[in-house]
Amino acid sequence: MDRTHVDRAYTEIRQRIIDGQYKPGQPLSEVTLAQLHGMSRTPVREALARLCHERYAERLPGRGFFVSRVTVQAITETFELRRLLEGWAAARAAALATPEIVARLRAVAERQDDQESGLQAGTHNRRFHLALAAAAGNHLAGDLIEQCLAQIDRFITLGAGFAPFTRGSAEAHTAIVAAIEARDPNEARARMEQHLDRGLALMRDAVVTGAFSGVGTT
């Protein structure tokens, strides 16, 4: 099988799920997707199996593939994993802190403005968290953090919008960088954990108030 087609099908379908073009609970027909993405059903089927493994899709016996539904549990689990990984990454970055690392992180943090449009703020927020993951020097942790961020982007595009989650982020990111510059791993970890705890609380509130589309409360 041409792995290029599988990778392209996976990337394109995944991105449309993250962007909200394919909604939670929507059927993912192999025939329709093959036509839309200009390929045979075989690479689409393999891409869907991969997406099931990553919880973007689910397969129901006798019914086929569907976009996975988002639940409060899924949101909570994603933030819990981020708290572990990014708390560690912030502490590790503080332990490894060099002027170059600090300057790189500060440059990304200072580009973020709480008055930016939601999409811009979301992009800068992602760049900061990925830059911090890179500063920790662990590629596997960086890959896992990137996967978590993609899931968070999906949750947000379901209706709540980026603005509530990015408001105050610039200040939080600056405080994390300051702790890293001070070479204080405990403070860096604590600042990151506080930042993520706030994000989880806001997202839970959004679910309760019905801001999200297609998100279950269980």
Report on this model:
The protein is mainly alpha-helical. It has 2 domains: 3-68, Winged helix-like DNA-binding domain superfamily/Winged helix DNA-binding domain (Arc Repressor Mutant, subunit A, Orthogonal Bundle), CATH 1.10.10; 71-216, GntR ligand-binding domain-like (Four Helix Bundle (Hemerythrin (Met), subunit A)). It is built from 10 helices and 4 strands. It has a two-stranded antiparallel ribbon with strand order 1-2. The protein has a two-stranded parallel ribbon with strand order 3-4. A hairpin with a 3-residue loop joins β1 and β2 (64-67). α5 runs antiparallel to α9. The longest helix has 25 residues, at 72-96.
Quick rundown:
With 218 residues, the chain is mainly alpha-helical. It has 10 helices and 4 strands; from the N terminus they run H-H-H-E-E-E-H-H-H-H-H-H-H-E. Strands 1-2 form a two-stranded antiparallel ribbon. Strands 3-4 form a two-stranded parallel ribbon.
